[in-house]
Amino acid sequence: MLEPEITVLLTEHRIEHLPIFEEIAEKHDVIILEEPYPDLINQVLEGGLDLSKYVELVYTEFSKFLEEQYKILTKLHKSGKIIYASEPYLAQLVKIYKHIERKTLHDALKQDKFLQFVHNIENIVSGKLLEYYDAVSSLDFEKAVKALLNYAKADAYRILIRDLMRASELRNIIRYYTEKGYRKILVEAGLIHVVLVKALSIYFPNKVQVINTKKLLAERCLPDADLKVLEYSHPGYTITFVYLGFLNNYNLRELAARCIIYNMLISKEEKYPTESDPCPHLREEYGILKLVSRLSFDECRKLFEKVMLKMLKGSTESDFVGF
Fold first, then answer.
1. How far is residue 82's CA from residue 87's CA, in Å, rounded to a whole number?
2. Residues in Cβ contact with 66 at an 8 Å cutoff, skipping those fewer than 6 apart
3. Which DSSP symbol is given to 198?
4. Per-residue pLDDT tens over the stretch 81-139
5. Domain assignment present for 237
6. Is residue 22 part of a domain?
7. Rounded to whole angstroms, how far apart are CA atoms 110 and 132?
8. Domain-embedded: residue 45
9. At 295, phi and psi to the nearest 5?
10. What's the whole-model pTM score?
11. Are 166 and 32 a contacting pair, CB within 8 Å?
């Protein structure tokens, strides 16, 4: 039996990462996206479904990224690459959104235990996030730190379940395509999904390699940057990895304090790279991480109180919460 060569591409939904995505995708036979509906993707690629409609159907926050990514996917598709998708947790989440719109969620949950399971997780995580919103808007820094950690712990459990579900589905997809003679498989995944990598490595021992587009982008775009800042100083990722059991011996309260400041300072809008600045998101992130990684808990508190008073005059809490 043909053995697969699996590449997990840890990346971000930022346009500046797409040239690297395209480079690596061209070297593979099958590209499995981090999207919920493979049938809809193929309809878009074949011209049977407008991309704007697809964006609407999957409730994405990264419409500009998808527009640019689908230009690349269309070329890959025409060149003979197989474009597929797998994200079973998100598929259930989209179902929940649709049932809410149709006012049929109550009956759907009674009939579908799996949907109910995902709905229960989302209720818990959403509740913790709302508590964080309330804490931030109350200007109580201690309360905000505690609420952020409670949210991060709940979100880490959601990530664990999401990754295990996806790994199980990917095992079958990869085996199917390998049996069809397609050996080189590319799996797109967000940077946070280390459990997915571990699970796939168990299913396919010695067949999984990992490529991190942020690291490659930094080497090309920010050659003088300290890569350790980008790799190890993101407070939100670090907290999540601690709760997932991959890291330990970290001061979680200090990390949470830094995470709050990071969230307040980082911009949320999608940015297009230019010739003069090919990595606007990464450049901004690096600058902010250099700042927050040096802050003590008390320095974070003082900065929080100072910035929040200004931000609350013209912003809502959702503008600076994005953990």
1. 17
2. 51, 54, 55, 60
3. H
4. 999 999 999 999 999 999 999 999 999 999 999 999 999 999 999 999 999 999 999 99
5. no
6. yes
7. 30
8. yes
9. -80, 140
10. 0.92
11. no
